[in-house]
């Protein structure tokens, strides 16, 4: 058997799209954000490019003509758009007269969504991919390598290769009614309505009211109050999916998205051309909600969908007019109601935000892996991560005591 060949690519377009997507489809945790069209659109739109501080260096592993493993990698001159914060590490390097940048990042730019990062035919190929990544970073004399929001098999391969692990917390909603053993008779009548058919005997919510009925009284009351404020303000929603999203709706969405970033004092990460490419090359991955008042669009939220539509990902939102509680309606209640109606099993609300727990998005631990070339700094960071990990564990325990449900699972 021939030894595998490692290749470095300066652009996603240098890799055959069909080969890449075929490899992605074979993974346990694929996501639309790892599709070739998504990554290529990041570059072609100049959203993630050398000009924006994301210089592509995709790594592939070949055995003959067969693509055995691959991953997106970028040389970074900053730490923006990553959502796993290492600014303190960079500052420590600078204070000691060392260069932290450029560094190597294996990630999907601007997309803090857990999923497969190391596409591989098998565990052996994945292990070789990690070894190749570290070896290349050493050859290039880079300060560090960071794999962000990896799937379990990625993290296991990185840990086996000696990389350090770092944990963060996100908030995800699951379309799961009370488990067996819950005293359903104590729920309000609408709370006992379930739609059967989930794996392992689990049940899904029959509708949004059934979901609300499972929450504690104060959480249920607050959500209804928030939704009533939006409704009483005369706001109504419509949604479009895939190719049914009109060009005018995409244009309106971008106005909302860009305005939200600018209101926070930042230019938008993603360019209009990126979303144009999504509408053209990957329409099936998107669900768009538009809020209207008096027939006029005033806000929108964009949701991504997995290939099998079992997972929805809250991504972007924006508004041109201010309406009390409109953000919650557009980003949580409308998408959750849609997920229940269409049998979506999980809704991931993105990075950070304890307020999401009040909407029944529960804490989920995510993991990244890190390699630092400098031995002394690697030791210091390892000690820091040990202390941080204890804090994350305590934080998760604390959050677990604040369940919004009437009956903890």
Walk me through what this model shows.
The chain is α+β, with helices and mostly antiparallel strands. The chain folds into two domains: 5-169 and 365-400, 3-Layer(aba) Sandwich (Aminopeptidase); 176-344, Aminopeptidase. Helix content is 35%, strand content 24%. It has helices at residues 17-25, 36-44, 87-95, 123-139, 152-160, 208-213, 217-232, 247-263, 272-281, 326-341, 375-400, and strands at residues 5-9, 54-56, 58-63, 66-71, 74-76, 103-106, 119-120, 144-147, 164-174, 194-195, 204-205, 235-241, 286-293, 296-305, 311-319, 346-351, 362-372. The strands form three sheets. It has an eleven-stranded mixed beta sheet with strand order 2-5-6-8-17-9-16-15-14-13-12. A hairpin with an 8-residue loop joins β10 and β11 (204-205). α2 (36-44) packs antiparallel against α9 (272-281), α4 (123-139) packs across α5 (152-160) and α7 (217-232) crosses α10. The termini are far apart. The model is unreliable at 180-201 (pLDDT under 50).
């Amino acid at each position: 058997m021939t030894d595998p060949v490692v290749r470095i690519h300066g652009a996603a377009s240098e890799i055959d799209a069909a080969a890449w997507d075929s490899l992605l489809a074979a993974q346990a945790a694929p996501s639309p954000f790892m599709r070739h069209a998504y990554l290529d659109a990041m570059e072609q739109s100049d959203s993630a490019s050398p000009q924006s501080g994301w210089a592509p260096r995709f790594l592939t592993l070949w055995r003959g003509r067969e693509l055995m493993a691959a991953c997106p990698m970028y040389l970074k001159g900053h730490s923006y758009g990553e959502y796993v914060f290492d600014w303190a590490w960079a500052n420590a390097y600078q204070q000691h007269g060392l260069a932290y940048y450029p560094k190597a990042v294996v990630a999907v730019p601007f997309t803090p969504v857990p999923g497969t990062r190391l596409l591989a035919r098998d565990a052996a190929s994945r292990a070789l991919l990690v070894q190749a990544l570290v070896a290349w970073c050493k050859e290039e004399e880079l300060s560090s390598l960071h794999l962000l929001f990896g799937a379990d098999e990625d993290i296991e391969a990185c840990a086996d290769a000696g990389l350090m692990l770092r944990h963060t917390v996100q908030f995800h909603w699951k379309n799961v009614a009370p488990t067996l053993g819950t005293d359903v008779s104590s729920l309000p009548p609408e709370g006992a309505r379930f739609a059967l058919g989930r794996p392992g005997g689990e049940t899904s919510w029959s509708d949004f009211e059934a979901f609300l009925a499972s929450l504690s009284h104060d959480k249920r009351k607050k959500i209804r109050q928030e939704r009533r404020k939006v409704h009483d303000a005369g706001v109504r929603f419509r949604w479009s999916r895939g190719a049914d999203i009109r060009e005018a709706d995409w244009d309106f969405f971008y106005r909302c998205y860009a305005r939200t970033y600018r209101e926070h004092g930042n230019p938008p990460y993603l360019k209009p051309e990126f979303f144009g490419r999504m509408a053209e090359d990957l329409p099936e991955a998107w669900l768009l909600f538009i809020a209207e008042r008096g027939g006029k669009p005033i806000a929108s939220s964009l949701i991504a969908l997995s290939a099998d539509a079992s997972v929805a990902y809250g991504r972007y939102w924006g508004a041109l007019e201010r309406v009390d509680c409109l953000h919650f309606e557009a980003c949580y209640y409308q998408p959750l109601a849609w997920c229940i109606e269409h049998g979506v099993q999980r809704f991931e609300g993105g990075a950070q935000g304890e307020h999401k727990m009040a909407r029944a998005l529960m804490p989920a631990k995510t993991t990244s892996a890190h390699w630092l070339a400098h031995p002394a700094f690697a030791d210091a960071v390892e000690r820091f991560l040990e202390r941080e990990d204890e804090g994350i564990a305590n934080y998760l325990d604390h959050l677990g005591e604040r369940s919004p449900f009437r009956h903890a699972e």
